[in-house]
Amino acid sequence: MFLDTVRRVQPEVVSLVGDVFDLPEFGKYGVDPREWDVVGRIKFAHDKIFKGVRDVFGGQLDLVEGNHEFRLLRHFADATPALRAVLADLHGMSIPKLLGLDEFEVNYVAQGDLGAYTERDIKNELNGNFRIYYDAIVAHHFPHGRNMGLPGVNGHHHSHQSWPGFSPVYGAFEWHQMGCGHRRSASYTEGQKWHMGFDIVSLDTVTRTTVHDYVTVNDFAVSGGKFYTRTKSEEITKPLLRMA
Question: Which pTM value belongs to this model?
Answer without folding.
Answer: 0.84
